[in-house]
Every structure is written in structure tokens, then in C-alpha cells.
Amino acid sequence: MHKKKRRDSFLNITSFHSILRELKRIAYHPIIFIITDNSSLSTSNNPNVLFSLSIIDEFKIEQISFNPIAPTYMKKALELIIHQASLLKLKPPSRDCINDIIQTANGDLRLAINTLQFSSKYIF
Questions:
Q1: Do residues 53 and 85 share a domain?
Q2: Is this prediction's pTM over 0.70?
Q3: Is residue 81 in a domain?
């Protein structure tokens, strides 16, 4: 399958579903999608559009949802990560940046950790 076709498949739901059917036929392992629950998602990235009830039934899709993490717990988790990262010669982002990460993550610890990782800098 052509790379461009795969890249654009989320823009065309029918194409996306065709690719899912092809992968279902040839895949040996489960396919996992990680989708952050965010009310600002565009239609093409909305899980309810990507995975309609008929698609969920056809592919026997299971959904695992996590409750959002409270900002205080998220801050403690990020501070622990920052402390451990300092041992690896990583310079953490500013406190304002960390607060922005917590607010933007909206309770999604995975997103907060990924954002923190990209916001940190190596010190040589």
C-alpha cells in the first residue's frame, strides 16, 4: 500500500475502514489506537466518527477509558519525573511551562509526560 494513501486515510473514513479490513486480514497482533479524549478534536480525528458502532461490532473493538488525573497528582508525578531526569543531565522546563503542561493535558498523564519530555533539554 502506498505511504501517501495511509497518511491521508484519516481524512477519508471509507479509506480508513478499508485499511482496517486489510490489516484485520493480515495482522498477527492486535492493533491499538491511543486517542486522547479532547472536545476540540476535528471530525476526522473524533473516535466516534473513526469507529462507528458498526465498525466497533465488525472488528470487536474494545475501549479502555481512564479517569482524568487531578492537577495536584499530575504535578507530583511530573515533579518526580523531573527529579529523576535531572540525574540524567536533563534541564527541566520552567515552572510556568510545567503549569501550562498540566493545564493543557487536561488530566491525561500520558500526554503530560510526552509534552514534558519534548520540553526538556539535555545539558552537556
A1: no
A2: no
A3: yes
